[in-house]
Amino acid sequence: MKAIELYSDRNNQVAKGINGQWFARSFGWNGYANGWQKWYAISEPKQITQLENRYSGEVVDIEPGLVVMHGFDRLHREPNGHKSVRLPNS
User: Fold this and answer.
1) H/E run at residue 64
2) CB under 8 Å, gap of 24 or more: what pairs does 68-73 form?
3) Backbone φ, ψ for residue 54 (5° rounding)
4) Domain locations in the chain as residue ranges
5) DSSP letters along 15-60, please?
6) pLDDT tier at 90 (50, 70, 90 boundaries)?
7) To 5 degrees, how large is the angle CA 18–CA 88–CA 22?
8) Which of 80, 82, 51 is CA-nearest to residue 64?
9) DSSP reduced 3-state for 5
């Protein structure tokens, strides 16, 4: 299945499939070498619309859809990254 959205940081990726299902994977030891793990289905991640500077307390509004939270990870949208992502059929 093709992806229509991709969010990532250095070690994590979250993608939305064409049917609306969300998937996630992480980069780490897979038993033989470091590499991407298999995609697994998740519930929709939380969309972030404000970021807070921990030191000054300043709150900045950001455009919806640019950042999502998956667990404790803040993932940023990859503008054209979804074009090379293949997701499992759900």
Assistant:
1) none
2) 68/7, 68/14, 69/45, 70/7, 70/12, 70/14, 70/24, 70/42, 70/45, 73/9, 73/12
3) -65, -30
4) 3-84
5) EEETTS-EEEEEEEE-SSSEEE---EEEPPPEEE-EEE-TTT--EE
6) low
7) 50
8) 51
9) strand
Percentage of the chain lying above the pLDDT 70 cut: 99
What percent of the chain stands above pLDDT 90?
Answer: 72
Asked if residue 70 lies in contact with residue 24, where contact means CB atoms within 8 angstroms, the answer is yes
Per-residue pLDDT tens for 48-86? 999 888 899 999 999 988 999 998 899 999 998 888 899
Asked whether 6 and 78 are in contact (CB, 8 A), the reply is: yes
Residue indicated by tokens 């939380």: 46
CB-side exposure of 25: number of CA atoms within 13 Å? 17
* Collapsed DSSP state (helix, strand, coil) of residue 4: strand
